[in-house]
Design brief:
The chain has about 525 residues and is an alpha+beta fold. Helices cover about 45% and strands about 5% of the residues. The protein is extended. The N and C termini lie far apart (about 90 Å).
Length: about 525
């Protein structure tokens, strides 16, 4: 072999940096887009944001006072110090919001102009927010200043139990053992570690007797919420049923008030929680009545009492807060039919800083600023293109699913990504990026754009039904069933077949599980 030169001609797709940024921005969610823009704004001085995403939030000034009036951003029309917002290059900005929304943000309202300054000295010389009665202490120690607490989170289960423990008169040794048990509780308030295992893990010089741990557990189980410290479901229910004693302020339902049963409802519920939870879980009421020797009305009352208990009493002390979805698109009915509109609240207003652009225009040798100017213009164009693509795809979905917006889930038609891609002349992967983590606000709720796509099931007439519509029909059939004789998966499949939808029993079972509907044996009610 000897070295040689060869000339080859080939075709390949090269992704430019601008195209790579456009693809990346398209697949980001709204929150991720805001984070991405914050990072780019901090790195590129030629790019600025006209709108303030935190403009409506309550803020704390450095002196501890509240700032309620929205402060204008440097360079915006409200500050009076920056260039005019005329939309021309090089300071052109991207703002696709409606004219009414633009006018509302570009001009300060009368309430903003006349808003009082809450940080003044109306409360007296040296007044400050925070401290006792909203007054400021005369000392100037910032470390000891009592700042205003805007929001307080729900206390954890551990804090709630430790507060009760400090109110008891137990010894330091008992308090240490109860604290050890509290640390072993899970989020639901159950004791997940056996006492023998906990005792074995303690240092031998402590010499903790089993009776001491039992006493500490009994003290913990007497705390609020009832059922905390339980080691299994049976014990958790029994601890809560103990609070239904006549001396605890709860009415004890006896036989005379519940169908003439020879046993009280409370004792019946205790017997079920102690020995017969598996039968109750499988809804085997016939065996329950035979083993407990009670009638239907007493068993029904005991069942209702057990259902009123909380199997995870510590879960309500969780610190997790609910997450709210901000829709990217809003669907409204107009005189032209259902139309999709971009949500102006999630659309950033970006522009090139005109002062830096003019400096760069006079000094063309600044190569670093030239690249940042080009990047700023790319970003503005790509952000605008991102929202335009989302709007196009959303409107195409609305046109295909008009029956859904009018009649609900039962009218959902089958739809795949390729149909929208062919209609808009886009690639299927682009449609997938657009519909992931993008949400649409409709009159029936907020849905991810992927929700409107689903597989199809053939019908007897030769058409197709959407899987979403079939799930809605299954939900309707189960909601209207006789609770004494619930519908089986076979019966649901037969009823769907009577409506012309051919569905196998295993498909019904799969859809039912996706809807979190219990099987027929667990839906039966006495």
């Amino acid at each position: 072999m000897k070295p040689s030169l060869q000339l080859r001609v080939s075709q390949h797709l090269a992704l430019t940096p601008q195209l790579q940024q456009s693809i990346r921005l398209l697949q980001l969610s709204t929150l991720e887009l805001q984070q991405e823009l914050s990072q780019i704004l901090s790195d590129n001085p030629l790019l600025e944001r006209v709108d303030d995403p935190l403009g409506d939030c309550v803020r704390l000034a450095p002196d501890g006072s509240l700032e309620t009036a929205r402060a204008p951003l440097p360079g915006s029309a409200e500050s009076g110090t920056g260039p005019s917002d005329n939309g021309s290059a090089p300071g052109a900005e991207f703002d696709a919001r409606e004219p009414e929304a633009r006018a509302a943000t570009d001009e300060p309202s009368a309430a903003d102009r006349d808003a009082p300054d809450l940080g003044d000295d109306r409360a007296g010389d040296g007044a400050e927010w925070g401290g006792e009665g909203g007054r400021r202490r005369e000392d100037g120690d910032d470390d000891e200043r009592e700042w205003l607490q805007l929001a307080a989170g729900t206390g954890s289960l551990r804090e709630h139990l430790m507060t009760q423990l400090r109110g008891t008169g137990c010894t330091l040794r008992d308090r240490a053992l109860v604290t050890l048990l509290i640390e072993e509780l899970d989020e639901g308030g159950w004791l997940v570690t056996p006492l023998d295992e906990m005792r074995a893990s303690l240092p031998a010089e402590l010499e903790v007797e089993p009776e001491e741990l039992d006493a500490a557990l009994a003290l913990l189980q007497s705390f609020d919420p009832a059922g905390v410290g339980a080691r299994n479901l049976s014990e958790c229910l029994l601890l809560q049923l103990a609070g239904h004693e006549p001396g605890h302020g709860h009415r004890n339902g006896h036989a005379n008030g519940h169908g003439g049963s020879p046993r009280g409802v409370l004792e019946l519920a205790r017997a079920i929680a102690r020995e017969h939870l598996p039968l109750l879980a499988t809804r085997d009421f016939t065996r329950l009545k035979r083993q407990l020797r009670c009638d239907d009305e007493s068993l029904r009352a005991a069942h209702a009492l057990i259902r009123s208990l909380d199997p995870r009493p510590g879960s309500r002390f969780g610190s997790d807060t609910a997450g709210y979805v901000v829709p990217d698109v809003v669907v409204r009915r107009t005189r032209f039919g259902w139309q999709a509109f971009l949500n102006p609240d999630v659309m950033p207003r970006l522009r090139v800083n005109e002062m830096y652009a003019q400096i760069l225009k006079r000094n063309r040798g600044a190569s670093g600023l030239s690249s940042q100017l080009q990047e700023a213009r790319w970003l503005i164009k790509n952000v605008q293109q991102r929202f335009e693509t989302i709007l196009r795809v959303s409107q195409a979905i609305v046109e295909r699913q008009r029956a859904f917006f009018t009649h609900g889930e039962v009218a959902m038609r089958p739809l795949i990504l390729r149909e929208i891609a062919d209609q808009l002349g886009l690639h299927e992967s682009t449609i997938s990026r657009v519909t992931t983590q993008k949400y649409m606000l409709t009159p029936t709720g907020t849905f991810e754009l992927k929700y409107f796509f689903g597989s199809h099931v053939s019908t007897e007439s030769g058409g197709a039904a959407s899987s979403t519509a079939i799930r809605a029909l299954i939900r309707q059939l189960v909601a209207a069933e006789d609770v004494g004789a619930p519908l089986s998966d076979n019966r649901i499949a037969e009823m769907l077949g009577e409506q012309g939808i051919v569905v196998a029993r295993r498909t019904v079972a799969k859809y039912r599980e996706a809807l979190r509907i219990a099987p027929v044996s667990q839906r039966k009610v006495l």
